[in-house]
Amino acid sequence: MIGIETLATILAVALTLALVLAAWRMVRGPSFADRFIALDMLTAVAVGFAALTAVATGRGAFLDIALGISLINFVATAAFAVFLERKQREES
Protein backbone atom coordinates (compact mmCIF):
# COMPACT_ATOMS: atom_id res chain seq x y z
CA MET A 1 0.00 0.00 0.00
CA ILE A 2 1.19 3.51 -0.81
CA GLY A 3 2.01 5.67 2.21
CA ILE A 4 0.56 9.13 2.70
CA GLU A 5 3.96 10.74 2.14
CA THR A 6 4.42 8.99 -1.20
CA LEU A 7 0.91 9.87 -2.30
CA ALA A 8 1.39 13.49 -1.26
CA THR A 9 4.63 13.63 -3.27
CA ILE A 10 2.95 12.19 -6.38
CA LEU A 11 0.07 14.65 -6.08
CA ALA A 12 2.47 17.56 -5.52
CA VAL A 13 4.32 16.64 -8.73
CA ALA A 14 1.03 16.47 -10.66
CA LEU A 15 -0.08 19.84 -9.26
CA THR A 16 3.31 21.36 -10.10
CA LEU A 17 2.97 20.15 -13.69
CA ALA A 18 -0.49 21.73 -13.89
CA LEU A 19 0.94 24.92 -12.39
CA VAL A 20 3.71 25.10 -15.00
CA LEU A 21 1.33 24.44 -17.90
CA ALA A 22 -1.19 27.02 -16.69
CA ALA A 23 1.56 29.59 -16.16
CA TRP A 24 2.82 28.94 -19.68
CA ARG A 25 -0.68 29.51 -21.10
CA MET A 26 -1.00 32.67 -19.05
CA VAL A 27 2.19 34.07 -20.55
CA ARG A 28 1.56 32.85 -24.11
CA GLY A 29 -2.24 33.11 -24.31
CA PRO A 30 -3.26 35.07 -27.39
CA SER A 31 -6.31 36.72 -25.82
CA PHE A 32 -7.39 38.17 -22.50
CA ALA A 33 -9.86 35.33 -22.04
CA ASP A 34 -7.11 32.71 -22.46
CA ARG A 35 -4.97 34.47 -19.92
CA PHE A 36 -7.80 34.80 -17.44
CA ILE A 37 -8.76 31.13 -17.79
CA ALA A 38 -5.11 30.30 -17.08
CA LEU A 39 -5.25 32.51 -13.99
CA ASP A 40 -8.42 30.69 -12.96
CA MET A 41 -6.55 27.41 -13.36
CA LEU A 42 -3.65 28.73 -11.30
CA THR A 43 -5.99 29.54 -8.44
CA ALA A 44 -7.55 26.09 -8.72
CA VAL A 45 -4.07 24.59 -8.43
CA ALA A 46 -3.43 26.81 -5.39
CA VAL A 47 -6.60 25.43 -3.80
CA GLY A 48 -5.34 21.93 -4.58
CA PHE A 49 -2.00 22.66 -2.93
CA ALA A 50 -3.76 24.05 0.14
CA ALA A 51 -5.97 20.95 0.38
CA LEU A 52 -2.97 18.66 -0.10
CA THR A 53 -1.10 20.52 2.63
CA ALA A 54 -4.12 20.19 4.94
CA VAL A 55 -4.18 16.44 4.42
CA ALA A 56 -0.41 16.02 4.72
CA THR A 57 -0.07 18.10 7.89
CA GLY A 58 -3.42 17.36 9.49
CA ARG A 59 -4.17 21.06 10.03
CA GLY A 60 -7.61 22.26 9.02
CA ALA A 61 -6.50 25.89 8.75
CA PHE A 62 -5.25 25.18 5.24
CA LEU A 63 -8.80 24.33 4.21
CA ASP A 64 -9.84 27.82 5.33
CA ILE A 65 -7.12 29.21 3.09
CA ALA A 66 -8.40 27.10 0.20
CA LEU A 67 -11.91 28.38 0.78
CA GLY A 68 -10.73 31.99 0.84
CA ILE A 69 -8.79 31.56 -2.40
CA SER A 70 -11.76 29.95 -4.13
CA LEU A 71 -14.14 32.73 -3.00
CA ILE A 72 -11.79 35.44 -4.27
CA ASN A 73 -11.44 33.51 -7.52
CA PHE A 74 -15.22 33.32 -7.94
CA VAL A 75 -15.64 37.07 -7.50
CA ALA A 76 -12.76 37.78 -9.88
CA THR A 77 -14.22 35.48 -12.53
CA ALA A 78 -17.63 37.13 -12.28
CA ALA A 79 -16.05 40.59 -12.54
CA PHE A 80 -14.02 39.57 -15.58
CA ALA A 81 -17.12 38.17 -17.28
CA VAL A 82 -18.86 41.53 -16.79
CA PHE A 83 -15.78 43.29 -18.17
CA LEU A 84 -15.73 41.11 -21.30
CA GLU A 85 -19.44 41.62 -21.83
CA ARG A 86 -19.11 45.42 -21.62
CA LYS A 87 -16.10 45.38 -23.92
CA GLN A 88 -18.00 43.30 -26.48
CA ARG A 89 -20.99 45.68 -26.30
CA GLU A 90 -18.74 48.69 -26.91
CA GLU A 91 -17.15 47.07 -29.97
CA SER A 92 -20.54 46.30 -31.55
TrEMBL record:
Official protein name in the record: Monovalent cation/H+ antiporter complex subunit F
Membrane topology summary: Multi-pass membrane protein
Location in or out of the cell: Cell membrane
Alphabetized UniProt keyword annotations: Cell membrane, Membrane, Transmembrane, Transmembrane helix, Transport
Similarity comment: Belongs to the CPA3 antiporters (TC 2.A.63) subunit F family.
Coiled-coil regions listed in the entry: none
Transmembrane helix in keyword set: yes
InterPro entries on file: MrpF/PhaF-like
Membrane-spanning intervals of the chain: 6-24, 36-56, 62-84
